[in-house]
Structure formats: C-alpha cells, structure tokens
Design a protein that fits this description.
This protein is an all-alpha fold. The protein has 8 helices and no strands. The longest helix has 35 residues.
C-alpha cells in the first residue's frame, strides 16, 4: 500500500501543476500523451507523484531523468540493462515493472531480463550490454569500478559513455529509493517481480 495518495491535477498547487504538465509534455509521454504516466484517477505514476510534494526538487529531478534517458550517448538497450541492474539491486518493484517492458522494446532479450531479475549474470549476445552490466554490478557491489570494467566501457563508449552510464545508474538509485520509501504501488493486476521481506 502506497504511503502517499496519488494527486490528480485539480488537487495541485500552481507549482505542482507546472511540474505535472512538464512531465506530461516531455519525452516520457511519447509526444504529449498522458498514457502510461497517469493512473485512472489522474495521478502521476512511478516516482513522479512523490516528486509533486517537493515541486522544485521534482522539476530538477525529472529534468535529470530526461537527460540521462533521452540525451545519452549510450544505446537504449545498454541504458536499460543499467536501469534493470539498479532496479534488481534495490528490488524496486515499480522500477522493474516499468523498465523490463522498456528493455524488451529496446531489444534486450528475455533471457537477459530474466537473468538480471534472478540476480544472476546473464549470457549476453550484445557485448555493449555485457560491459554495462559488469560495470553496474561492480559499482553497486563495491562502490568502486576497477580498471577492467572501466576500460571496457571507455573502449566501447568513450569517457562520455562512462559518465552517461554513471549518471543513469545514480539517477535510478535515487528513483528506486523514492519508490521503495513511498511504497509506490504497481498498477492494478500486476504481480511484484521480487518477493517482499
């Protein structure tokens, strides 16, 4: 059960309405549609409803999210492998639900998605996905990245690619924290991908 109520647009202050509209007008909406971002009652889903409670911070967070997802130098399948790796680490139910679908659309195989969800290193067909996964796992587990993982990312994607990967991982750690602390619910009828403790 979510710790905060979903807020419809008519319940929002002016600053909250501006953030609400900004999220719906951005690239996450696929051209201005609220489909997939708003629940049946008009509330934003995912971390966005929580961010409405701190609209200035929410505005900055959603802008960072747009940048790490839509302005990245990394291919979308590589980004999604990184996001799923964070979602698995944090057992962020909503994050996994949302990004497993996006990963599949980006070309990440079902075997890779299932392996990450199970906490196992998958067999990767795409070497770019493999280097992103190894980099992400090492960073999440040790809070550092050794030369081998670092060099693999830089050789494939350059220093900008390494920075873009760090940014997406860090951003989705914060998103996962938000989702977990506020107990953001999955859409009705969806089963949680991870057991709850």
């Amino acid at each position: 059960m979510s710790r905060i109520q979903a807020l419809g647009r008519d319940q929002l202050s002016e600053a909250q309405r501006e953030l609400y509209d900004e999220i719906l007008a951005g690239p996450r909406s696929g051209g201005g549609s609220s489909r997939g971002l708003v629940d049946d009652g008009g509330g934003l889903i995912g971390p966005f409803n929580a961010w409405l409670h701190s609209p200035e911070l929410g505005r900055r967070l959603q802008a960072v999210g747009e940048s790490v997802r839509f302005d990245s130098s990394l291919p979308s399948n590589v980004l999604e492998v990184g996001i799923l790796t964070v979602g698995r680490e944090w057992r962020a139910q909503f994050e996994w639900w949302a990004h497993a679908r996006l990963a599949a659309r980006a070309g990440v195989s079902d075997d890779v998605i299932d392996g990450i969800r199970a906490g196992e290193r998958p067999e990767f067909d795409d070497p770019g996905e493999a280097v992103a996964y190894d980099f992400a796992r090492e960073l999440l587990e040790t809070r550092r990245v050794g030369d081998a993982a670092y060099d693999s990312v830089v050789e494939r994607y350059g220093t900008r690619g390494a920075m873009d990967l760090i940014a997406v991982l860090g951003y989705y750690v914060m998103v996962s924290m938000t989702l977990n602390v506020f107990r953001v619910a999955l859409p009705p009828g969806q089963d949680p991908p991870f057991p709850e403790d």
